[in-house]
Amino acid sequence: MSDEEFRHPSHSYLAEAAPEFFERYDAVVRMALALDGDEGLALPHKYRELIVICMLALLRAPEDAIANHIGRALGAGLSEAELVEGLQAAFVPGGAPVLMHGIRSLVRYREGA
Predict the structure, then answer these.
(1) pLDDT of residue 10
(2) Alpha helices (runs of H) in 3-62, residue ranges in sequence order
(3) What is the pLDDT of residues 3-16, one digit of tens each?
(4) Could you read off the pLDDT of 51-70 as tens digits, one per residue?
(5) What is the average per-residue pLDDT within 76-105?
(6) How far apart are CA 15 and CA 13, in angstroms?
(7) Hey, is 4 helix, strand or coil?
(8) How far apart (Å, rounded) are the C-alpha atoms in residues 57 and 86?
(9) Cα dist from 112 to 13, 25, 63, 68, whole Å
């Protein structure tokens, strides 16, 4: 799956409106999420995406943004069971709203996939 498949529309806009800024922003995101490969890294890409998903759920980010990362994580080999268990772990510090926001985002992803 290509990055273009998972590029949020706001990122596409930013890439056109501020290409120099977006180039630097994209480089940091690619490094942090291991989008160019995770060989030799302790934490694989799929788990980096899981962390992002849980953080976005905690922050009550829009479901489409979370669904975008769900697509990336599943595309990188994360199972839905791992995703659900990750959200269950996020329940401990964030409460039921985090868990349910993440699950709603998964349902949204599945409906659009």
Answers:
(1) 85
(2) 3-6, 9-17, 19-32, 45-58
(3) 555 677 888 899 99
(4) 999 999 999 999 999 999 99
(5) 97
(6) 5
(7) helix
(8) 11
(9) 22, 27, 12, 10
Which pair of tokens denotes residue 92?
């401990």
Residue ranges covered by each domain of the chain: 3-112
Q: Which residue has the tokens 């709203």?
A: 97
Q: Which residues make Cβ contacts (< 8 Å) with residue 71, sequence separation at least 6? A: 1, 5, 6, 109, 113
83's tokens: 């995703």
Q: How far apart are CA 64 and CA 38, in angstroms?
A: 25
Is the entire prediction scored with pTM above 0.85? yes
pLDDT tens profile 12-59: 899 999 999 999 999 999 999 999 999 999 999 999 999 999 999 999
Distances (CA, A) of 38 to 17, 50, 52: 30, 14, 16
Q: For 3-112, which CATH class?
A: mainly alpha
